[in-house]
Amino acid sequence: MKRQFTEYLVEWKDSLNRKPLIIRGARQVGKSFIVKKFAQNNFNDIITLNFEEQAELKQLFQTFNTEQIMLNLETLFGKKIIANHTLLFFDEIQACPNAIIALRYFYEKHPQLHIIAAGSLLDHALNNMKSSMPVGRVEFAYMYPMSFYEFLWALGEDISVEYLQNYTLKQEIPLAIHNKLLELIRVYYIVGGMPEAIKVYTQSKSILEVHKVHESLIRSLEFDFSKYGNSSQRDIMNRLLNFIPKTIGNKFKYVNFDNTIRSNIIRDALHLMKMSRLIHFIHSSKSNDIPLQYGVNEKVFKLVFLDIGLSNHILKLRLTDINNESIFNEGSLAEQFVGQELLTLPPCYLDHAIYYWAREKRNSEAELDYLLESGRTIIPIEVKAGKAGKLKSLQIYVSEKKIKKAIRFYASPPSVVVSETSIKVDKKMQEVKYQLLSMPFYLIREAERLIQDLN
User: Fold this and answer.
1) CA–CA dist 386, 200 (Å, integer)
2) What is the mean pLDDT of residues 226-243?
3) What is the Cα–Cα distance from 317 to 211, expressed in whole angstroms?
4) What are the helix (H) ranges across 248-330?
5) 340-357 burial, b if ≥16 CB within 10 A, otherwise e?
6) How do the domains of the chain map onto residue ranges?
7) Given its phi and psi angles, is residue 316 left (phi above 0), alpha (psi -120 to 50 degrees) or beta?
8) Is the domain covering 5-142 a CATH 3.90.950.20 domain?
9) For 45-98, how does the pLDDT look when each residue is reduced to its tens digit (9 = 90+)?
10) pTM higher than the cut 0.85
């Protein structure tokens, strides 16, 4: 299946400043598959070491003598390692911390070699070996579930992707095309972006078969908890796995999960799930400028789950009619979709952080779904599940931060308006004027480009 990540791998391969590449991502997002497919198309040969499946391979890295390591690999696999012709792939490298350390010496002594490492629980290993980490001698890239565009490619909808990539605000999207793309969004809501689920759907067109894949994937995620948490933490993470999809779109409150467990214990379990890249924290930021990180309140956050399809499976959304209009009435699904898409935006070498805004003044609360950093500009984003909805929180934010442009994602065709209104904030009336770019969900990957086209 076509992945945008492949384009980054090609750029890495041809880079003059190339370093060993470590790919970070959750289990089953396609890391191993894409590396092997990339090697097939760009190298004469590949040597793959899977440290989970072949634990004996760890013995090769009891030394950091790279010449000896390469000699042992050539003898073991019966093939020569030739620079620019052979790709070395260290899969599930978190199971062999010495192999991570060895990447430093490969870079220093054999910079011409192409080496890629990957692992599903890699962040845990990296966190535990801070002092030995080959800082400056490796580079990172990040993989996520397949985006909506990648889902369209898998369905053979290449022309639809090209249409969206070339869309301009001067165009009017015909209603028939608009409805078709919304229907595909509905399908994506249920199937999600896990490659195996998409593969099964493209082959069978059966939502029931997709549910079977989702169930298997969730059991695999639960099994992983035993690899990095104690028994108490495993129990909490199992419960969080089933609880978090219910909280999407809302501020996470420890007391709502379990008021009998200390918040620091729940926080530690969330941190473990974050390092497994099963969840992503959406922190509240009050910053008036870039970077939004400067205004973050670490105690105030929402969560985005790994994948919308898995999230809906946990919520027991077992729709056989994927055209059910009621799907779009669920605001949490829309926020999960938008958050998931924002995380997968290029470039792949950035571990994207996304934020939201919350105003918690008494009798004047407001909350904006997402904040997007675009160059030196903050772009506020409001997500509406249906075709309309009030924009009071967006208007308050625009007024407070003196923002000139904003985005609304919803289910209606695109539009651009200059919004002029009066709002009551802290018992005072304030005039608000800004450009509002309203776009259907299927245009989210074009949002930054399109808003820059506004005057």
Assistant:
1) 29
2) 94
3) 10
4) 254-257, 263-275, 308-314
5) bbbbbbeebeeeebbbbb
6) 5-142, 148-278+303-341, 355-452
7) left
8) no
9) 999 999 999 999 999 999 999 999 999 999 999 999 999 999 999 999 999 999
10) yes
